[in-house]
Amino acid sequence: MILTPQTRRLRLFGAIAALAVVAAYIHILPRWGGSPYGYARGYYEGVASYFHGPNSVYNNTLYTEGMEGVVDQYYNSSNPCADFPDTDGILLVMKTGATEAFDRVPTQLLTTMRCLPDFLLFSDMEQQIGSYHVYDALAEFEESAKAHNSDFDLYRDQKECPVSQKSCIDARSDNTQKAWNLDRYKFLPMMEQTWRMRPGRDWYIFTEADTYVFWANMVQWLRKHSGINPRERVYLGSRSFIGGTPFAHGGSGYVISGSLLKHLIEYHPGVVEQYNIKGANECCGDLMLAQALEEYEHVKIRQSWPLFNGEKPSTLPYGPGHWCEPILTMHHMNAEEISSVWQFEQTRKTDRPLMIRDLYYAFMAPKMQIQRSDWDNLSDDVCYLNPDPEAQQRAEGFERDRQKKESEMSDIEKDAWKSWENCAKVCESEIPEDDELELGMLGRSDDDDPAKASDTNAAEDTSPSDRSAREARKKTMDERKKNRECFQYRWHKEVCCTSKSFKLGAPKSKPESDYKKHRWMSGWHLKGINDWIDVMGDCKTPAWKQPER
User: Fold this and answer.
1) Where in the chain is the domain with CATH 3.90.550?
2) Where is the composition biased (Basic and acidic residues) (predicted)?
């Protein structure tokens, strides 16, 4: 192509201009880096990387007022499995249902399960969640047994749903009960398939899709603190009872040693078929599993509560027995709660075993206040009801059963049912303020004369008898604070209930009529709670527990 003189001049001018810009940049660059405004370059690069490339450091949403010493200010998600324990020889087996799988399992896969090298997912329908396969625990269930069992109506309906399971689920009002009825048949078949697909592990941990596992604690407990050898035939969890039969509560999670699972499946091939038939007459699959283990293996659940726990941060009964104990599992965790606890584990400022008290400081302490309207903090240990027979009849059964005998009530307790204000006085009156005032005044003879008060204080410093009296008084007060039995209250429909632990609870709907009488009011005796925490001191050693027989 022939260039015109004008085109050649324009190109020459452009080349000269480009060279001039490059020369100016080289000349200015050293002075820019050393100038007072050099920070601007780093700021620019930081902003540019945020907008133009992957960023793994974010503001930690758990870092709020009062949490400065508990979690880091920033959440670095670049390597979430860096501190995850070695789970070699330990397999997670998670049970879900087609009606809930896509609501619950994805968050599990995004948090703790992303760090597990292997696990199994079972449901009542074969499904695929991203790259993860969900196995049908009931696929090998005898067809003849399914055909004449109405509990399997949902199983058949799920397979016939022409759209997403959620669309079909939303159209059925009785979905929850049907899913519960079907769930009990999964337990024993799931054991058989687990051993067939993943034999030879030391420990098998079985959980629900709404169970959270604290893996660092779990691995440490199984290998160091449980006192159990996986070659023993053992069955561990949180013990519950139905009809006098003990069993490990499925939602809290339970552990079966490889030795026990191997023996159950390989030495008793008829156990699954027998309990498939039996399922129609039993309420729960976790109960049937316990029955099978006792019938065929003569093995009973070994109590490992509160390490295996059926509560979550907002419902845990913080206090005696739920403080210095490490926690292995929690139940009824929704997707948001699973994500928040995972984030807490990722941003904690300490690597010591996570104890129940740590969950209090992270999820409850920042939200503590004297009272909340339209709230149920789950107080239910001791109740005070209107003595009128009709009012007694209207009350819940457990409220009537947990009434304090009138002959044992104080005047304050006798009036507690009349209003939430009266109810609040029950905890306040347990340890009178006058006792603490007396502690501070011990040994003073004349409060109105500063000189005499000063002389008295000086005498206290030198008098062994006074010091001994003060120490004895303090010890007595500390003992009373430690043994406090009233930490919070809730009031509703002329029923006042108090609690021997402190919990957060959950909101309640506002009543449509007679708001003053039917409202839910909850309150916390913050001074009593903080006194108890102070007396307990730091948990210098986690209270690991060995399974009870």
Assistant:
1) 52-367
2) 391-413, 467-481
In sequence order, what are the beta bridge partners of 128? 133
Q: DSSP letter string over 461-515?
A: HH-HHHHHHHHHHHHHHHHHHHT----EEEEETTEEEEESSB---EE-PPPSS-H
Task: Determine the Cα–Cα distance for residues 282 and 247; give it in Å rounded to an integer.
Answer: 13
* Cα 350 from Cα 500, distance rounded (Å): 29
More confident residue, 486 or 36: 486
By CB atoms closer than 10 A (0-12, 13-18, 19+), residue 267 is: exposed
- How far CA 337 is from CA of 32, 64, 99, 136, 244, in Å, comes to 48, 17, 20, 27, 33
Q: At residue 77, does pLDDT exceed 50?
A: yes
The two beta strands, 245-248 and 239-242, are antiparallel
The angle, 0 to 180 degrees and rounded to 10, between the axes of the packed helices 433-441 and 464-482 is 160
* Two tokens, residue 143: 């067809």
The torsion of the CA quartet 390, 392, 394, 397, rounded to 10 degrees, works out to: -150
Contacts of 320 (CB under 8 A, 6+ apart): 500, 501
* 501, amino acid identity: S
Least confident of 194-208, 271-285, 427-441, 446-460: 446-460
Provide mean pLDDT across the span 6-28. Answer: 60
List, in sequence order, the alpha helices (H) in 153-284.
153-160, 165-170, 175-183, 187-197, 215-220, 258-267, 271-278
Interior CA angle at 255 toward 349 and 232, to 5°?
115
Say if CB 402 and CB 444 are below 8 A apart.
Answer: no
Q: Distance (Å, rounded) from C-alpha 276 to C-alpha 293? A: 15
The CATH code belonging to domain 52-367 is 3.90.550
**Among 366, 228, 217, residue whose Cα is nearest residue 299:** 228
